[in-house]
Amino acid sequence: MTEQELRSLLQKSKKEGHRAVFQQYGNYVYAIVYSKLRSCATHEDIEECVSDVFAEIFMHLDTDHEGSLQGYIGLVAKRTAINAYHRLSGKSCMMISLDDENLPPIRTEEDVAQDYENKTMRALLLDKIKALGEPDSSIIIQKYFYRRNSGQIAKMLSLSPATVRKRCERAIKKLKSTLSEEDFYETESKSG
Amino acid sequence: MKQNQNPDDIFYLLEHADDETIRHLSENYLSADADEMERIFQRSEQKYEMRCQKDSDMDEVSVPVQEKNIRNSGLYRSIFTMAACLILTVGAVTGIMKLKPLTPEEELPSADTPDTTESVPETESETIQTTEIRQPEISAETTYVTDMTETLTTTAITTTVMTETTPKSTAVTSHTKTAGITETSAPETVQTVTETIIQSVPEETNVPEIAETIPVTETVPEITETETIPETTEPKTEPETETAQAPDSVFYLESKDYGAESGFEYIITSVKVYPDADAPDSFDVYYMPTWIPEGDEFTGLGKAEDGSSISYSYAKGHARNIIIHQYLQSDFTGLAPDLNVPDTEYSDFTYTTINQNPACYYTWITTPLPVYNTDPYQSNIIYWKQGGYILWLEAYNLSLEESFQIAESCVPTALPEEN
């Protein structure tokens, strides 16, 4: 469904429009929130944050929103997730005056070369995971990105936990062998 | 590569994923199962409706509150003005009636005697004392006049505070009236007393100051702004969460301090792991201790129904209990239950190693319920990685050293054949 179609559906019926927006962008918002909160939140916290994001979006989507809907939703999701991160990790923003004479030099931890390497390797890894085919690629992502256990993955993919474990084991071996052929580990050790 | 990462773990690349990766993941893979997504959607709708309702409530509330602000109405002001005038009049009349016997002929026959006038000292306090000693009758009346003046002053201040329409100089007027009455009663001696009274009453400038600091019409709009009320009444229910990881440990700790909200000092803690990519996905062996404290006996070995963990235990009657759980690394984070640990000076969480494998432990003093009539005893929980599995030892009423000795003595043992 295009953004234009979503907007016109929202104008016709809010309820249906909300469901369509959720179906379209639910995975996207969940992935953003999960990536921000994975180190400090439980799955329940993440669910709560995702529902906060959509409640916020539903509140303000009725108005004639201009620009990319996906960009707007992504922005709301990031902002809400960062707020939740600060709340859950007990961290608060520390304000430092730029006029302070004792202000230490601000350094960036961004390493452009390293980031580029990581980006390349990440793209290669995702390609190879996708090449494993279903349900192996989903098992790998659910296990190593979303950190779900075999029981949860089994329920999600309608498989038995034992099957999930066995397929995961084989998929990892296959993935490692494929990545070795692509000199993935050499690149990784250089960049590491 | 990240410093804390297992070299075989290629999936660290997915952490801190950039926008492109997240888009790729969300487009190609499910983030959660259908039930979870439906639950989130229903929750979102619920929150959306609550927020809409809250907004409409705020609009509805703000209008009637302003309409009910009767203190700003003319009727309210006139009633209070009339009441204030009535109180002042009654006060003044009562004062006059009470002071009526204080005529020079009836009560103060010797008011103009030379002794009284000559005894007026320079300081005002001495004036009162001298007057009281030499003329007890005048002193008694002076006290009464003081009381009356204070009453009138209080009335005047109250009236000024209650409504702006009352003249701010009412209090001063009342003093002047009192002074005038007294002057006619006792020409010289009472004149001195009257001056004392006027100075003992708050000064003329104080009355408007009080009236200005408590303006009714300024405070009322603040009360009517109900937007801030829900914020102050909403209790903070979310406990602080902390996450910690040692530099070389696969374990990381998430804890929530519930002490502030519950009144009980305890921490809900969950220890989690970053799983290795090559960790075993099934149980080939289990790690059995070769040393256990004297008197403890093996009480059983069991496997979870879904095959995710193995547990075996030892006990010394009801006095001591030792349980070891063995988890698959990938299942540990999702399955290991949270710990409820008292947050006291005897509680300690530390990262360590066991047989050169990453480990961490919790130790605390358990205070049993009084009904058991036992002494406080030590509880230890040790997590460590061995053979690609996560082992979790729970030991109750055992020293930390002995608990570690058990953990270090664990060796791989073939699983008994399933019936």
Fold and architecture overview:
- The complex is a heterodimer of chains A (192) and B (419).
- The longest helix of chain A is centred in the first third of the chain and has 24 residues, at 14-37.
- The termini of chain A are far apart.
- Chain A contains nine helices and no strands.
- Chain A is mainly alpha-helical.
- Chain A has two domains: 3-89, Orthogonal Bundle (Rna Polymerase Sigma Factor, Chain: A); 112-191, Arc Repressor Mutant, subunit A, CATH 1.10.10.
- In chain A, 33% of the residues are buried.
- The radius of gyration of chain A is 21 Å and the shape is globular.
- A seven-stranded antiparallel sheet of chain B has the order 5-6-7-12-11-10-9. Chain B has a four-stranded antiparallel sheet with strand order 1-2-3-8, with helices on one face. In chain B, strands 4-13 form a two-stranded antiparallel ribbon.
- Chain B has two domains: 70-224; 238-414, Phosphorylase Kinase, domain 1 (2-Layer Sandwich).
- Helix content of chain B is 44%, strand content 22%.
- The longest helix of chain B has 34 residues, at 34-67.
- Chain B has 419 residues and is an alpha+beta fold.
- The model of chain B is unreliable at 1-7, 109-135, 153-238 and 259-264 (pLDDT under 50).
- At the A-B interface, helix 2, helix 3, helix 4, helix 5 and helix 6 of A face helix 1, helix 2, strand 1 and helix 13 of B.
In N-to-C order, the SSE pattern of chain B is HHHHHHHHHHHEEHEEEEEHEEEEEHE
The number of helices of chain A is 9
| Overall average pLDDT of chain B | 65
CA-to-CA gap between the ends of chain A?
Answer: 42 Å
The value of Rg of chain B in angstroms is 42 Å
CATH architect. name of the largest domain in chain B: 2-Layer Sandwich
CATH superfamily of the largest domain in chain A: RNA polymerase sigma factor, region 2, helix turn helix motif
Helical residues, percent of chain A: over 70%
Counted by DSSP, the helix tally of chain B is 14
Stated plainly, the CATH topology of the largest domain in chain A is called: Rna Polymerase Sigma Factor, Chain: A
> What percent of residues of chain A are in strands?
under 5%
Secondary-structure-based class of chain B equals alpha+beta
Number-wise, the strands of chain B total 13
